[in-house]
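Posting for a labmate who doesn't have an account.
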Amino acid sequence: MTIARAMVEAKDKLDFCQVCGCLAESGLCPYCSDQGRDQTLLCIIQEPRDVLVIERTGQYRGLYHVLHGALSPLDGIGPEELRLDHLVQRIEESRIDEVIIATNPNVEGDATAGYLARLLKPHQVKVTRIAFGLPVGGDIEYADDLTLSRALDGRREM
Protein backbone atom coordinates (compact mmCIF):
# COMPACT_ATOMS: atom_id res chain seq x y z
CA MET A 1 0.00 0.00 0.00
CA THR A 2 2.89 2.39 0.72
CA ILE A 3 4.32 2.07 -2.80
CA ALA A 4 0.95 2.76 -4.39
CA ARG A 5 0.46 5.81 -2.18
CA ALA A 6 3.95 7.08 -3.05
CA MET A 7 3.22 6.67 -6.77
CA VAL A 8 -0.04 8.60 -6.51
CA GLU A 9 1.66 11.33 -4.48
CA ALA A 10 4.49 11.61 -7.00
CA LYS A 11 2.00 11.84 -9.86
CA ASP A 12 0.14 14.61 -8.02
CA LYS A 13 3.31 16.57 -7.22
CA LEU A 14 5.16 16.24 -10.53
CA ASP A 15 4.44 18.16 -13.68
CA PHE A 16 6.45 19.31 -16.68
CA CYS A 17 8.69 22.38 -16.54
CA GLN A 18 7.06 25.38 -18.19
CA VAL A 19 10.27 26.17 -20.07
CA CYS A 20 12.00 22.93 -21.09
CA GLY A 21 9.49 20.13 -20.51
CA CYS A 22 11.57 18.21 -17.93
CA LEU A 23 9.91 16.89 -14.82
CA ALA A 24 9.40 19.54 -12.15
CA GLU A 25 7.71 19.86 -8.78
CA SER A 26 6.73 23.46 -9.47
CA GLY A 27 6.75 25.75 -12.52
CA LEU A 28 10.48 25.38 -13.27
CA CYS A 29 12.74 22.34 -13.13
CA PRO A 30 16.08 22.45 -11.30
CA TYR A 31 17.96 22.95 -14.59
CA CYS A 32 15.97 25.96 -15.81
CA SER A 33 16.04 27.59 -12.38
CA ASP A 34 19.83 27.18 -12.04
CA GLN A 35 21.37 30.47 -13.18
CA GLY A 36 24.82 28.85 -12.98
CA ARG A 37 24.12 26.76 -16.07
CA ASP A 38 25.37 27.84 -19.49
CA GLN A 39 22.45 29.83 -20.92
CA THR A 40 23.96 29.76 -24.44
CA LEU A 41 23.88 25.97 -24.80
CA LEU A 42 20.68 23.94 -25.39
CA CYS A 43 20.49 20.15 -25.55
CA ILE A 44 17.42 18.71 -27.28
CA ILE A 45 16.39 15.31 -25.95
CA GLN A 46 13.48 12.98 -26.60
CA GLU A 47 12.25 12.12 -23.11
CA PRO A 48 12.60 13.58 -19.58
CA ARG A 49 14.54 10.50 -18.43
CA ASP A 50 17.28 11.37 -20.95
CA VAL A 51 18.19 14.39 -18.81
CA LEU A 52 19.33 12.12 -16.00
CA VAL A 53 21.55 10.13 -18.35
CA ILE A 54 23.26 13.26 -19.67
CA GLU A 55 23.54 14.79 -16.19
CA ARG A 56 25.19 11.62 -14.89
CA THR A 57 28.19 12.29 -17.14
CA GLY A 58 28.98 15.54 -15.33
CA GLN A 59 30.11 16.99 -18.68
CA TYR A 60 27.08 19.08 -19.65
CA ARG A 61 26.10 22.27 -17.84
CA GLY A 62 23.71 23.85 -20.34
CA LEU A 63 19.93 23.91 -20.68
CA TYR A 64 17.53 21.28 -22.02
CA HIS A 65 14.52 21.05 -24.28
CA VAL A 66 12.45 17.85 -24.08
CA LEU A 67 10.52 16.87 -27.20
CA HIS A 68 8.46 14.15 -25.49
CA GLY A 69 8.93 11.82 -28.44
CA ALA A 70 10.41 11.56 -31.91
CA LEU A 71 9.02 11.85 -35.40
CA SER A 72 7.24 8.64 -36.29
CA PRO A 73 4.68 8.91 -39.09
CA LEU A 74 3.62 5.28 -38.61
CA ASP A 75 2.68 6.09 -35.00
CA GLY A 76 1.01 9.37 -35.95
CA ILE A 77 3.74 11.52 -34.37
CA GLY A 78 4.51 14.53 -36.53
CA PRO A 79 6.23 17.85 -35.83
CA GLU A 80 3.06 19.23 -34.21
CA GLU A 81 3.32 16.71 -31.35
CA LEU A 82 6.94 17.54 -30.44
CA ARG A 83 6.78 21.04 -28.91
CA LEU A 84 8.74 22.47 -31.86
CA ASP A 85 6.91 25.81 -31.87
CA HIS A 86 8.01 26.31 -28.28
CA LEU A 87 11.59 25.34 -29.22
CA VAL A 88 11.78 27.88 -32.03
CA GLN A 89 10.26 30.60 -29.86
CA ARG A 90 12.74 29.79 -27.11
CA ILE A 91 15.70 30.08 -29.48
CA GLU A 92 14.42 33.36 -30.92
CA GLU A 93 13.88 34.90 -27.48
CA SER A 94 17.09 33.74 -25.80
CA ARG A 95 20.82 34.01 -26.29
CA ILE A 96 21.38 30.38 -27.29
CA ASP A 97 24.47 29.98 -29.51
CA GLU A 98 24.54 26.20 -29.91
CA VAL A 99 21.90 23.49 -30.02
CA ILE A 100 23.02 19.92 -29.37
CA ILE A 101 20.65 17.33 -30.79
CA ALA A 102 20.74 14.25 -28.56
CA THR A 103 17.97 12.11 -30.00
CA ASN A 104 18.27 8.33 -30.01
CA PRO A 105 20.42 6.68 -32.70
CA ASN A 106 17.55 4.93 -34.47
CA VAL A 107 15.35 5.66 -37.48
CA GLU A 108 12.97 7.95 -35.58
CA GLY A 109 15.77 9.74 -33.72
CA ASP A 110 17.76 10.29 -36.90
CA ALA A 111 14.70 11.58 -38.75
CA THR A 112 13.96 13.93 -35.86
CA ALA A 113 17.57 15.15 -35.78
CA GLY A 114 17.52 15.85 -39.52
CA TYR A 115 14.22 17.69 -39.25
CA LEU A 116 15.50 19.78 -36.32
CA ALA A 117 18.69 20.68 -38.17
CA ARG A 118 16.67 21.98 -41.13
CA LEU A 119 14.19 23.75 -38.85
CA LEU A 120 16.88 25.55 -36.85
CA LYS A 121 19.24 26.44 -39.71
CA PRO A 122 17.67 29.88 -40.39
CA HIS A 123 17.91 30.86 -36.70
CA GLN A 124 21.63 31.68 -36.60
CA VAL A 125 22.56 28.98 -34.08
CA LYS A 126 25.21 26.31 -34.37
CA VAL A 127 23.47 22.92 -34.59
CA THR A 128 25.44 19.82 -33.56
CA ARG A 129 24.57 16.15 -33.07
CA ILE A 130 26.00 13.93 -30.36
CA ALA A 131 28.60 11.48 -31.65
CA PHE A 132 27.94 7.76 -31.89
CA GLY A 133 30.37 4.91 -31.81
CA LEU A 134 31.72 1.99 -29.93
CA PRO A 135 31.08 1.60 -26.21
CA VAL A 136 34.06 1.89 -23.89
CA GLY A 137 35.36 -1.58 -23.13
CA GLY A 138 33.70 -3.09 -26.19
CA ASP A 139 35.42 -5.11 -28.88
CA ILE A 140 35.33 -4.03 -32.53
CA GLU A 141 34.59 -7.58 -33.63
CA TYR A 142 31.18 -7.43 -31.89
CA ALA A 143 30.13 -4.03 -33.28
CA ASP A 144 27.39 -3.94 -35.88
CA ASP A 145 28.10 -2.33 -39.25
CA LEU A 146 26.13 0.86 -38.58
CA THR A 147 27.79 1.50 -35.21
CA LEU A 148 31.24 0.93 -36.66
CA SER A 149 30.42 3.13 -39.65
CA ARG A 150 29.30 5.96 -37.36
CA ALA A 151 32.38 5.53 -35.21
CA LEU A 152 34.54 5.95 -38.32
CA ASP A 153 32.55 8.98 -39.48
CA GLY A 154 32.78 10.62 -36.05
CA ARG A 155 36.50 10.12 -35.60
CA ARG A 156 38.60 13.06 -34.40
CA GLU A 157 42.23 13.98 -34.47
CA MET A 158 44.39 12.94 -31.52
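Reply:
Got it, the C-alpha coordinates are right above this. The chain has one domain: 36-132+140-153.
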